[in-house]
Design goal:
The protein is an alpha/beta fold. The chain contains 20 helices and twelve strands.
Length: 582
């Protein structure tokens, strides 16, 4: 885990090294100040020597200024190192997430990934800065101050040693009790982010069903859980202060009492006692810093594990040693293909699929919910890998293609489409970033999207809100079809992607496909018979298997499932009204 995280320091290695060096120099310079104060009192003030007072005073000023400079440099270097480290972590996580296959993504919830990219990275950023600065400063300051105290007076310095051991033991006990709460709190952050995310995305549904009070209560509960966790942890940590101050004042009283006796007996100078009291504060404050470091490291350890999980997650879909960068045509062949979403699953989602599709064919797919229609087409663009058997596109096993090449030539348009904030043209150019406006317009004509776009105030420069919230479902689907067409695919998969489009527009889209892209293999998943009845062949899916395959007329006569669906929809054709989804 540590190796994985430190690999993200990268270009910030120099400042990461300079920070602790500056901290060490600051401690060394500060450690001489109590000693110089003691000399000033003994050799200057007590001896009434004005020149010595000025001499030691100048040394103290020089030490203080130098200490201030290196301390400031340490702060600057530490901030640069920690923020750079956090930047690299976010970048590495985000880039690795982009490589994930669907099976990798299934391991993490969206809310969890957001928490890891934000809260967890911020915790590590703070911990890293604290490690570079305080974790270097505190132990070194403790050791130096203890050494200097023994140098001044061994008997009194023994009090420090005993106090350090007692206080250190108590702090460890306090922190160990707080650890379990810090480990649990970040899972609660996932719940909070999930609540916020779902509420914002589903705001229209929330308002439609008047569920604002329910959502408020849900958020209050998630937020309250975090509050309670932190409250319990902080209640335990608050004992640090009283224990620390009790130890500090006890040491000062004991040192003052023993020191006074030693001064009366001539064994200790007044200046040395002042020096020892100064080191007392240094030692005990170092312990306080160490306790804070322990808290921060404890909090960040859970974050570190969560971030490392994302960084170490490797996509199970990779290119072969010699990937192929050209898809010759849109022919597709399934050979004894079986598939399950989990490797250790006993039951397959798809079972022994054997299917051959010629380039340029229009294939319809129909079946009930859970019949694995989407699972079947997801394998074609290699969003998942087959569990058994082989799948060929353009006569080549999909595992032998370069992933990017394959997915550009196998375009998928989903029922639940996503548009991004930006203009209509910017969204269309997701399909081809080099596409001209004329090419975008032509694609929109094929998808029957040009009509409503031209009616918009700014036409193709109209701004689309995040998620496409300012366009209807049918308009969104047609924009996504046009976006897919701009990739100039060899295979075009429409996964129920005209469900929000009226039957007349649906028919115009299919007619345009037939005339303008005859060589592209078109696979249409639909619930409406009218969307696929003119396909070259129709596949009927049931429980992950092909129940029947053939033309519309053949299936109406020979396949009971298809016949039942057809007959159930015949009586409802009058419900489809032209222009209903504009």
């Amino acid at each position: 885990m540590i190796k994985t995280l430190l690999s993200q320091v990268k270009q910030y290695k120099l400042v990461s090294v300079l920070t602790p060096i500056c901290m060490i120099l600051e401690v060394i310079l500060e450690s001489f100040i109590p000693l110089v104060i003691g000399w000033l009192i003994t050799n200057g003030i007590e001896a009434k020597d004005q020149s010595k007072i000025i001499y030691y005073g100048v040394i103290m000023i020089i030490l203080a200024v130098l200490s201030l400079i290196v301390g400031a440099l340490g702060g600057i270097f530490g901030s640069k190192a920690s923020t750079g480290f956090a930047k690299n972590l976010r970048k590495a996580m985000f880039e690795n997430i982009q490589t994930f296959s669907f099976s990798n993504i299934d391991k993490f919830s969206t809310a969890s990934l957001i928490t890891r990219l934000t809260t967890d990275v911020t915790n590590l950023q703070m911990a890293y800065q604290m490690m570079l600065r305080m974790f270097t400063r505190a132990p070194f300051s403790l050791i130096v101050a203890m050494t200097m105290a023994f140098f001044v007076n061994k008997k009194i310095a023994t009090i420090y040693l005993i106090a350090v051991l007692v206080l250190g033991t108590i702090l460890v006990l306090i922190m160990s009790r707080a650890v379990k709460y810090f480990n649990a709190v970040f899972k609660k952050y996932d719940d909070l982010n999930e609540s916020v995310q779902e509420n914002i995305i589903g705001m229209r549904v929330v308002k439609s069903f008047v569920r604002e009070d329910y959502e408020k209560e849900r958020f209050k509960k998630a937020s309250g859980n975090i509050y309670m966790m932190f409250k319990k942890a902080e209640n335990i940590i608050t004992y640090n202060g009283p224990v620390m101050m009790l130890t500090v004042y006890s040491c000062m009283i004991l040192i003052s009492w023993l020191g006074a006796n030693y001064i009366v007996g001539g064994e200790l100078a007044i200046g040395d006692l002042t020096t020892l009291l100064g080191y007392c504060m240094n030692i005990l404050m170092s312990l306080m810093m160490l306790s804070m470091i322990f808290v921060m490291v404890t909090m960040s350890y859970a974050s570190a594990k969560r971030i490392t999980e994302v960084l170490n997650e490797k996509s199970d879909l990779t290119n072969g040693k010699c990937p192929i960068f050209e898809v010759i045509d849109g022919s597709i062949e399934f050979k004894d293909v079986s598939f399950s979403y989990k490797e250790d699953s006993d039951e397959s989602v798809l079972k022994n699929i054997n299917l051959s599709i010629n380039a340029g064919e229009t294939i319809g797919i129909i079946g009930g919910t859970g019949s694995a229609k989407t699972s079947l087409v997801n394998l074609i663009s290699r969003l998942y890998d087959v569990s058994d058997g082989e799948l060929f596109v353009g006569g080549v096993n999909v595992k032998e293609y370069d992933l990017e090449t394959l997915r550009k030539k196998v375009a998928v348009v989903l029922q639940k489409n996503v548009l991004f904030s930006g203009t209509v043209l910017e969204n269309l150019r997701w399909g081809n970033k080099e596409a001209t406006k004329e090419e975008c317009i032509e694609a929109c004509k094929l998808a029957c999207a040009d009509g409503f776009i031209e009616k918009m105030k700014d036409g193709y420069d109209t701004f689309i809100e995040q998620g496409g919230s300012n366009v209807s479902g049918g308009q969104k689907q047609r924009l996504c079809i046009a976006r897919a067409l701009l990739t100039q695919p060899k295979v075009l998969i429409l996964d129920d992607s005209t469900s929000a489009v009226d039957t007349a527009t649906d028919a115009r889209i299919r007619e345009a496909f037939l005339k303008k892209i005859p060589d592209t293999t078109k696979i249409i998943i639909a619930q409406r018979i009218s969307s696929i009845q003119h396909a070259d062949r129709i596949i009927v899916m049931e429980d992950g298997e092909i129940n029947g395959i053939g033309t519309h007329d053949y299936l109406v006569e020979h396949n009971d499932i298809y016949k039942d669906v057809y007959e159930s929809q015949i009586g409802n054709t009058d419900l489809d009204v032209e222009g209903g989804a504009e």
